[in-house]
Amino acid sequence: MVALLVGIVCIAFAVFAVLPGPLGWWADVLAFLRGSVPVLAAFIGLIAVFIGIADLKDRMEAKKEEAEEAKAEKKD
C-alpha cells in the first residue's frame, strides 16, 4: 500500500514538474530524453547481439546433440 502511494505521489510530481508553471522542467526533460536515446539504443543493440550469439551457440549445440543421437540410434 505504501509503495502504491509513493508511486502515485511520484507520478503526480513528474506531471507537475513538466507542466508550464513554477518548475517548468519540460525543456530539461526533452534534453534528457534526447541525450538518453542514443545510449539506450546502444544498450539495446548490445543486448540483441548477446542474444543472437547465444542463439547461434544453442543451435550449434542442438545440431551436435541431434548428430550424436542419430549416431547412437544407428549403432543400436
Beta-strand level of the residues, as a percent range? Answer: under 5%
Question: What is the gyration radius calculated from CA atoms?
Answer: 26 Å
Count of helical segments?
2
Low-confidence stretches: none
The helix/strand class is mainly alpha
Mean pLDDT, as a whole number?
92
- Please outline the major beta sheet: none
Number of domains: 1
Distance between the termini: 63 Å
H/E element sequence? HH
Helix content: over 70%
What form results from the Cα inertia axes? elongated
Overall number of strands: 0
Describe this structure in words.
The protein has 2 helices and no strands. With 76 residues, the protein is mainly alpha-helical. It has one domain. The protein is elongated and about 80 Å long. The mean pLDDT is 92.
Short characterization:
With 76 residues, the protein is mainly alpha-helical.
Layout of helices and strands:
Blueprint: H1 2-18, H2 26-75
Keywords for this structure?
76 residues; mainly alpha; 88% helix; elongated
